[in-house]
Amino acid sequence: MLGDRGLAELTLDELDAARAESSNRVETEDIAWFVDAFTSLWPRDIPSEFHYHVSETGERQACLRSYFATNTELRTRPSGWNIIAEGIAGGLAQLFGIGDCKTHPMSVRFRGQIGATGGAPTFTLDEPTSRSESGASPVDARVS
To answer: What angle do CA 78, 102, 98 make, to 5 degrees?
Structure first.
């Protein structure tokens, strides 16, 4: 089923391809009156990681970790009840970046069981131990 490749190598290749496709930019209109939010997510130049983990109960799990960066930028579109007041408030908000969430590193970690069904690999997610962490770097975010 794996050919000449190791399980971790095959898993990471698939994970990196999926990670590249996960980049996105989402616009949320009118989050507050005349203010819109643009949230971006993109992979960092840090390879995904594969770790093998044995839980406290002796359950064998694969741990997959990917590194991303994310930010949110607010934009204003005055057009409401008082366009002059909205214009002044919106101009000040954009000038000083009020409400913007600057770019932050983050990581996403999945733990679960690797198996096979009908000759195809499967991954069963263990939801309680899967999480995302902000500010994560490869040095301080290692999975045991």
So the answer is: 35
What global pTM score does this model have?
A: 0.67
For residue 6, which phi and psi values (nearest 5 degrees)? -80, 160
126 by DSSP, 3-state: which?
coil
Q: Are 93 and 76 in contact (CB under 8 A)?
A: yes
Sign of CA dihedral 114, 118, 120, 122: negative
Closest CA relative to residue 34, chosen from 82, 98, 67 = 82
Measure the CA–CA gap between 69 and 28, rounded to whole angstroms: 19
Q: How far apart are CA 105 and CA 107, in angstroms?
A: 7
Residue 78 and residue 89: Cα distance in Å, rounded?
9
Give the helix ranges, DSSP H, for 22-143: 83-96
pLDDT one-digit tens code per residue, 19-38: 878 888 888 887 777 778 88
Within 1-144, where are the H helices?
A: 7-21, 83-96
